[in-house]
Amino acid sequence: MLDSAVVAPHHAAKIVFNDHSVAEFKFIWLRDSCKCQLCVHEATGQRLLDSNSLDLNIRPKELYINDRGQLEIIWPDASQQEKHRSIFDASWLYRYGQCFMENTYEQQDVERNRPPKELWDREKIKKQFPKLSYTEFQSGDAGLRKWLEYIHIFGIAVIQGVPTQNQEEVREIVNRFAYVKQTAYGLTFDVLAEPKAAHLANTGRYLEHHTDLNYREKAPGLQLLHCLKSEVLGEGDEEAAGGKSFFVDGFHVAQWLEDHEPAAFHILTSTPLRFQIKMDGKRYSQLWPVIALDSHGDLAEIHYNNRTSGPLQAPNNVVIPFYHALKKFVDKLRDPASELVFAMSPGDVVAFDNRRVLHGRTAFNPRRIARHLKGCYVDIDEAYSKYDSLL
Amino acid sequence: MLDSAVVAPHHAAKIVFNDHSVAEFKFIWLRDSCKCQLCVHEATGQRLLDSNSLDLNIRPKELYINDRGQLEIIWPDASQQEKHRSIFDASWLYRYGQCFMENTYEQQDVERNRPPKELWDREKIKKQFPKLSYTEFQSGDAGLRKWLEYIHIFGIAVIQGVPTQNQEEVREIVNRFAYVKQTAYGLTFDVLAEPKAAHLANTGRYLEHHTDLNYREKAPGLQLLHCLKSEVLGEGDEEAAGGKSFFVDGFHVAQWLEDHEPAAFHILTSTPLRFQIKMDGKRYSQLWPVIALDSHGDLAEIHYNNRTSGPLQAPNNVVIPFYHALKKFVDKLRDPASELVFAMSPGDVVAFDNRRVLHGRTAFNPRRIARHLKGCYVDIDEAYSKYDSLL
């Protein structure tokens, strides 16, 4: 509800809301936000008003609270045919006016309906293992929402009991909310032991914690891995056969680093490291800090893959500090207390935020383990657009 | 060529090259860069050496220039089985040592083989119109390279005479070097006049200069538009029928702004603007500065679309300066002296860097013009990986 609306100095309207908060809206901003049919295309919701055509010194002809409690402004537009009457609901002004409130500067939060993220270590994730059955996942919007919510909160979610007859089933899962993101590895890719591996993932070798495709201009946000086959062959200890998957919440480790080793945190957030790979005669190369922050200083992306990192290119006085900082970060990553470890069973689909959760696999003996995963990537903003639409 | 290599203070080897330049390489960096078969997987080129396992205080057991002029280091590794001998070519050290040269801090430049970009306005681009025939484009690597080079240099290239029988021909063009990037609009999309348009592009309306998909986490880098049909119907002035395409080099305009209006340039590079759209019940939303710079302060991306920009959310003292700065930028964008304008003919494929070159279309009368474009997007780093492989 609006208590009052008056013209204020400095080209602004001063609005008092009924909770006594006060915001000043610049006239040019109000005119530019006009939602009338001349300014917004009704069918598409896209803006017709060309901001650039506005008089930057525009002032309202009339400005008042109308009898429905809305702010109403009549503008002195150039032509009579295009006389604009802007009508703003109190709730809209209150929401978008947060950044104009006295003593506040709060951006409208697009994620405001989402629950907070929860960073985790081994103990925490074991208590709240984010899994659901394929039946539940398939049961309408509620199942899809639950799964997407797990991914938002924990950066990882497991669907159990996904059919394995169709090797491309993982695409059907993605098609429920978006589309598969193609890469140079194809629409989907196989992870299995191969005699002549073109990629280290396709050997029985231990794969350290890593994020994928750091050498691309934007690493894919969401990765899905569908276990089609995982059999222990022959005699002997199953544990010794190896091949377990592990996942670590990179945001949790980065947060730990910021809290306990702020100098190391600073170096890893400010030193770009080159990631690179050669594939089919093509070279991919990109610079990323190991811990990328957004403009608010919040954790945005983790980039770490020992196998594809290039020689550090930095001022010489940063070289040794960088190695020390990286060691603190990676030691904590590899601490068993950080890890979620489990043997993927046929029918498991693990989906994880590839820019938050690092993944890896213990070594395995390809003569003892027959293992086949089918994977794919998805633009994670597509996943979150769908998630937000279900909230 | 190496003149000398000696152990220096502060855990480094001091190398003098035969052009008298001097670089200091930290031991940990040299050990981490070892290219021996124990450290790098021969078949895949991926690193086997786990940086995190290294002794951060490692020192060479022996360090000398061998009889082939290479730097050779023998390391005192823990186990005798894994004794490492690192061999570095002088040229490799020289290239990667730029950042360790005294008084220099130059990163290895992955784009070093590419010609410089050329920013353009109307006069310049008219003299060097970056076009080639479909026949030339199809003539092996040389044609593909020429086309990709145009895109790198000018941010735009036209192929003429592309067959129009197959409406999806644009995918064949992309498949020569990469794969189509799917979006919520599909693998390809149509731009044509429709009676009930779900998107403003599909009306006869004037479309101002814009970049596409600013509301995604990463706007697609490369866009292709294939003109399948463009006929002027009925009597009267062809010019009056409208429907011409225009393109503007956003980097040129941004550079002009930095040179002539540095305060406006600063505001547009530092103020995030929200871009948003609702589609099929889903909301996409992303913050970008209109002019995004990289960490060196070089132009990286342009984001501007009047139709999808949301209410500015910024401290109140920035609101009016932002509108003034934007007007200076957009007025220059719309200056006819900035524009490349032409009527697309059937068979034309225009490809452009969607994060550098803004595009638009003059209004047209859908009763006079029958117009059909087929478009698609591509990850531009895929295009440049291919381009670099052809240099």
Strand order of the largest sheet of chain A: 7-8-18-11-20-9
Q: Termini separation of chain A (Å)?
A: 25 Å
User: Per the principal axes of the C-alpha atoms, what is the gross shape of chain A?
Assistant: elongated
The CATH class of the largest domain in chain A is identified as Alpha Beta
Q: If helices are DSSP runs of H or I spanning 4 or more residues, what is the number of helices of chain A?
A: 11
CATH architecture tag of the largest domain in chain A:
4-Layer Sandwich
Q: Structural class of chain A, please?
A: alpha+beta
Oligomeric form = homodimer
Overall tally of domains of chain A: 2
- Please name the CATH topology of the largest domain in chain A: Double-stranded beta-helix
Q: Which chains have the largest interface?
A: A-B, 85 and 85 residues
Portion in strands of chain A: 25-35%
Major sheet description of chain A: 6 strands, mixed
CATH superfamily of the largest domain in chain A: Clavaminate synthase-like
For the CA atoms, what is the radius of gyration of chain A? 27 Å
In a nutshell, what does this entry contain?
With 391 residues, chain A is an alpha+beta fold. The first copy, chain A, folds into 2 domains: 2-100, NE0471 N-terminal domain-like (2-Layer Sandwich); 122-390, Double-stranded beta-helix (4-Layer Sandwich), CATH 3.60.130.
In words, what does this structure look like?
Two copies of one chain form a homodimer. With 391 residues, chain A is an alpha+beta fold. Chain A folds into two domains: 2-100, NE0471 N-terminal domain-like; 122-390, 4-Layer Sandwich (Double-stranded beta-helix), CATH 3.60.130.10. Helices cover 26% and strands 28% of the residues of chain A. Chain A has eleven helices and 20 strands. Chain A has helices at residues 27-32, 90-96, 122-127, 134-138, 140-154, 169-175, 238-241, 250-260, 262-270, 316-334, 380-390, and strands spanning 2-8, 12-17, 22-26, 62-65, 71-74, 85-88, 131-133, 156-160, 189-192, 207-210, 222-232, 245-249, 272-279, 282-289, 291-293, 299-302, 339-342, 349-353, 357-361, 369-378. In chain A, the strands form six sheets. A six-stranded mixed β-sheet of chain A has the order 7-8-18-11-20-9. The model of chain A has no long low-confidence stretch (mean pLDDT 90). At the A-B interface, helix 1, strand 13, strand 14, helix 10 and helix 11 of A face helix 1, strand 13, strand 14, helix 10 and helix 11 of B.
